[in-house]
Design brief:
The chain is of the alpha/beta class. It has 3 domains: 3-49, Transferase, Pyrimidine Nucleoside Phosphorylase, Chain C (Transferase, Pyrimidine Nucleoside Phosphorylase, Chain A, domain 3, Up-down Bundle), CATH 1.20.970; 79-326, 3-Layer(aba) Sandwich (Pyrimidine Nucleoside Phosphorylase, Chain A, domain 2), CATH 3.40.1030; 331-419, Alpha-Beta Complex (Aldehyde Oxidoreductase, domain 3), CATH 3.90.1170. The chain contains 17 helices and 13 strands. The strands form 4 sheets. The protein has a 4-stranded mixed sheet with strand order 1-4-5-13, with helices on both faces. It has a 4-stranded antiparallel sheet with strand order 6-9-11-7, sandwiched between helices. Strand 4 (195-202), helix 10 (211-227) and strand 5 (231-238) form a beta-alpha-beta unit. Helix 1 packs parallel to helix 3 (35-48), helix 5 (91-101) runs parallel beside helix 11 (249-260) and helix 16 (351-363) runs antiparallel to helix 17. The longest helix has 17 residues, at 211-227.
Length: 434
């Protein structure tokens, strides 16, 4: 078998066999296939698509590229959640300790930022000392002791996804349905969770721009999950504006900490409660989503979710002084507020532009291996549907470079659209697929 023939076959719109897909995955992980050929095949997949059999074969080949965890010896049922990626999406930071504090073990493998969308690992690493490179033994031990663990691909789980993810991030090959399905589901399958809640984002700040595409992605992941005997629920949620207010690594950790202390952070708290409610339902802790939402809200109100967060961060090497006193987290040298120069109703936010603005400030990667500036980011003070008056603050920008800050300001202003007529606020969720 030769990789060039596989690239040409997919380029010409043909269906790849499971053997060809396995050959590609093994060759790429072993280093026999270079990045440029892998990137060419990824682009061919993005342009020509894959059918269900190909996507299933790709998912399983990626899942089996490293160790496959079995967690039954630790807990009878382990739950997980995963988002398809959005702007300001720090839901995992709140939901996983909340669910774990309800007595449902959460073992999660997360990713880094991808294109305009932030990554949970990057956010967590803004806490000094936090280790996302756990070994399998450490992953399992922490799951047993703390009931919550959140690691990166370093645990030799689905290493193919770790490599491909970094390559896709910088080669324009992120928004492909089979690549997203296989990326997410390979990690979930390898990490051994029995029940998985998928948060499928749709809108300007998501990889899926239309409800039809988001449904196809959600259904694709639910089908793959079923094939391998996992309980899966997919929520389709709005990403036509950043979630909550903060976008940027340390800023988002601060916002998540505020939510864990019970603060109402606009749409963010409600979103977290619904995802937690679904996890508690899927994990058998409650009989209805509503009961799950109530239990999650009580767990936050009692302080138990916050205590679990601290315990988890400490167990993973994070310095809890920084989360106890979040002002100590990395902060930017330049802080500028951008105010409205016109009045009107906020009609739309180009959320991917906000994500890319944060990347351009240094909060994400433009090239593989770029270092992250955890301090930079944006706070957005308005939501679609809000009435805005001249002089009202729209954004607060956090930067460490004057030139980048000035460009970012212009870019942020261009990302908003206003209307004279009232605008209906956006919903949080559109659909639920089981
Ligand atoms: N999240 C992932 O883990 N992978 C993708 O491809 C997109 C979002």
């Amino acid at each position: 078998m030769r990789i060039i023939e596989i690239i040409e076959k997919k380029r010409d719109g043909h269906i790849l066999t499971a053997e060809e897909i396995e050959f590609f995955i093994h060759g790429y992980v072993d280093g026999d296939i270079p990045d440029y050929q892998a990137a060419a095949l990824l682009m061919a997949i993005l342009l020509c698509g894959m059918d269900d059999d190909e996507t299933g074969a790709l998912t399983l080949a990626m899942a089996h590229s490293g160790e496959m965890l079995t967690l039954q010896d630790i807990a009878p049922l382990v739950v997980d959640k995963h988002s398809t990626g959005g702007v300001g999406d720090k839901v995992s930071l709140v939901v996983t300790p909340t669910v774990a504090a309800c007595g449902l073990p959460v073992g999660k493998m997360s990713g880094r930022g991808l294109g305009f969308s932030g990554g949970t690992l990057d956010k967590l690493e803004s806490i000094p000392g936090y280790r996302s490179d756990l070994t399998v033994a450490e992953f399992k031990a922490q799951l047993q002791q703390v009931g919550l663990v959140l690691s990166g691909q370093s645990v030799n789980l689905a290493p193919a996804d770790g490599k491909l993810y970094a390559l896709r991030d910088v080669t324009g090959t992120v928004p492909s349905l089979p690549l997203i399905v296989s990326s997410i589901m390979s990690k979930k399958i390898a990490a051994g969770a029995d029940a998985i809640v998928l948060d499928v984002k749709v809108g300007t700040g998501a990889f899926m721009k239309t409800l039809d595409d988001a449904r196809a992605l959600a259904e694709g992941m639910v089908r793959i999950g079923k094939r391998v005997g996992r309980r899966v629920t997919a929520l389709i949620s709005d990403m036509n504006q950043p979630l909550g207010r903060a976008v940027g690594n340390a800023l988002e950790v601060r916002e998540a900490i505020a939510a864990l202390h019970g603060e109402e952070v606009v749409d963010f708290r409600e979103h977290c409660l619904v995802v937690a409610g679904e996890m508690l339902l899927l994990g058998g802790k409650v009989d209805t989503v509503e009961a799950g939402i109530d239990l999650a809200a009580q767990t936050i109100a009692s302080g138990a979710a916050w205590e679990k967060f601290r315990e988890w961060i400490a167990a993973q090497g994070g310095d809890v002084r920084y989360v106890d006193d979040p002002i100590r987290l990395p902060h930017a040298r330049i802080v500028e507020t951008v105010v409205a120069s016109r009045s009107g109703f906020l009609a739309h936010i180009q959320a991917d532009e906000i994500g890319m603005t944060v990347v351009s400030l240094g909060g994400g990667r433009e090239q593989k291996g770029d270092l992250i500036d955890y301090a930079v980011g944006v706070e957005i003070h308005v939501k679609v549907g809000d009435r805005v008056e001249v002089g009202q603050p729209l954004f607060t920008l956090y930067a460490n470079d004057e030139g980048k800050c000035a460009t970012a300001m212009q870019r942020l202003l261009r990302s908003l659209g206003f209307s004279e007529a009232p605008v209906v606020p956006l919903p949080l969720f559109y659909d639920r697929i089981q």
